[in-house]
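Re: [help] complex structure
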Amino acid sequence: MSVTKMLKLSLLGHSGIKDEIIGEIHKAGIVQISEIDREEMKKFHNSDDEGGSIREFRVIDEKLQEIGKIKEGLDFSIKFLTKYKPRKKLLDSLSSDQFIFENDSYIKTAEGFDHGICEQVKIFSNRITELESIYSNTISRIEVLEPWKGLQINISDVYNASPQVDALFAYIDIKSFKEFRETVDTMDFVHLSIIHSEEEIQYFSILYLKEKSDKIQELLKRFSLIQMDFSDIKENIASTIREFESKEKEIQKELKDIDSELKRIARDHDTMLISLDYWTSLYKKEEIKKKFLGTRSSFLLKGWIRKNDLDNLNAIKKRFKEVDIALEPPSKKDEPPVALENNPFNSPFEVVTKLFGLPTKKEVDPTPLFAPFFALFFGICLTDAGYGLVLIILSLFMLRNKYLGTGSRNLLRLIAISGVFTMIVGALAGGFFGIQFENLPASFQAVTRFKEKLAVLDPLKNPLRLFGFAIGLGVFQIITGFIIKFILLLKNREFRSAVVEALSWLLIIHGILLAVLLKVKYFWGLAILGAGIIVLFTSKSKNPLARIGAGLFGLYDITGIFGDIVSYSRLFALALATGVVAMVINIIVGIIYGMVVNIPVIGVPLAVIVLVFILVFGHLFNIGINALGAFVHTTRLQFVEYFTKFYQSGGKEFSPFKEDLDYVRIKKT
Amino acid sequence: MTIGLFFVLLGIFSAVVLAGIGSAIGIGIAAQVAEGVMTEDPKNFGKYLMLVALPGTQGIYGFVIGFLIMVKLGIIAGSIPDVSLNQGLFAMAAALPIALAGLFSAIHQGKVCAAGIEMSAKQPNEVGKALVMGVFVELYAVLGFLISFFLVWFGINF
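Output below.
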């Protein structure tokens, strides 16, 4: 229905214009280039040319590597410099980076950027890691040495004092120190001196005769002393600490210098983003060549093109002499990529279709089939004419931004259309910013009376009516689903399935509905007929027991359909929640206004400010949370209750080879 | 205050607070995961926000039921009638469907949404599917809400 016709394209050209052709196709963005079959490639080449094509591949790979390296450098620098770049305002930082350029002018900016600077950034980054590790090392050395500061003498002097004497520096837990000291006092070959005492730990040195060193080892073990190693210290401890401290300062200074240097480089952060876009685009243009088939003097490109883009293709073709194009419709074997095409009312809803998945070539595009339901259900979930108005205004305002992607653009259009439905349903349900019309002053009586006449679906006046409306819509949508299934199965000439899987259910649903609503019992016959079809014909088995068993099991699906119908009650629940919360916001504002307005002098202006503030933010919050709920619940109803009847999806999206920039937005002049 | 009125207030309490606790826990679970994911990729904040907000509706449903009981009671209009014990117990029982369905469904919805956030961190284009999964859990809060609503709206007359 509204799946675009695709054509298979083969483009044969002279190698000399390969880059130009790629450039043009890339710019136009109308062709999806497909991989060429390697087997076909062998047929096409004679052995000599095959060597040429391998050579070609090597050239492409080398180029890709070169560009890839630049890209990687830029990518690293961009990520690394994020913390160094100038801070943005909070509001700006929420939106993503975008830079607007006219036509191709961004290329100049990108080419003008010296990506050599990325090497520099990499070096700085490595140096920072190195310095930080040295720094923490230095700090921990200072901490270890700190308690020994009181040791005034040169350490080397102590170690080399006399050939018979050796020295040892250690510390011990204060609890064991007393016992240790008593033990040492009994040894006449040991001299103990306390260097420093802390609450928990004693630091000391001992001098001892070298010949008794085994006794000392015993001592070390017995009291589990922790020995210090000062062998690398030349002078005294204090001067060593000073040395480390000056080193620490040096490191800090270097880090600071690097920091300010990086901050200077980071001012080009935006330019780097633009460059990254440029190089990524170059990379893609080079990479795509791998999909081409080529000889020394020609190349062949295969792909898909939308039928309506043919004019654009011919315009490109006219500019080149050495190009030939062949077009053919897809064969039975082909799975052409899927692009949707709908009228302006339906096309925004393609967003939702894509969320579920695109149709296969056997299926129809479900977009026009669910779009009206979607907008209506969304409206019921909000049921406030004022909220609908806000949604329309907000989305139209945001649509003025010309550089939005198609996805967001369609989403905003969808919200605008749903906003219109919200206004209509809101008027019928009597919701307008949750205002309680009966509490309005007498001068508004005309408005109130008008509203009362209009509001036939007011959920608080007559909840069952709106509830019934929601369920009724559900039944209607499910019936529509089965009818579509019926038609599609007929079209595919699957008559048995059409009767057993679709018509039978239609008979059952209609039979029950008519029998209950019109109170005519003959209609039960329709339902029984439908049930009979299911029981007897679901299975093709010859064994009557198995056949009827499977049939009865098939009939069990009635619970699923009942569940589907109940599921539509969510529309009523969401409508109610939105309406009541809107009302509560107004009541709260009224109470607060009453309290504030009585404050002398500043009362009235303050009350007005508070009133406006709470009203605006309260209702915006309510719109936000409920619009989200409305979107999600409505989407679910389409996917689970509706699509399951006739739509499976599984098509691949048409994704043409085109300019796909992350940060640069191009303004066409 | 009559003992009946006490039970009415207990009903309002259970609708608002139990469903609210459920939403708070559900959002809490999802938000923690979102923050974890954003340490790697802060760009998709908007997408995660939708999934984090989803378990918030149960609290709103509970609040609406609590509010409607207050409307029926007449507190909003400024007067409190005498409430018999039977009426009070009815009002409390009417609040329980949304209170309990809200409490548990919001917690489980939070878990589903948290998983959805993890999924969409790796597959940013599939966030819609994660949302639909979360909504599956919500149906049962909706059903509880509807039953509570009809009980309150048609069953309570002070």
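Chain B touches chain A at residues 43, 45, 50, 53-54, 56-57, 60-61, 63-64, 67-68, 76, 128-129, 131-132, 134-136, 138-139, 142-143, 145-146, 149-150, 153 (CB under 8 Å).
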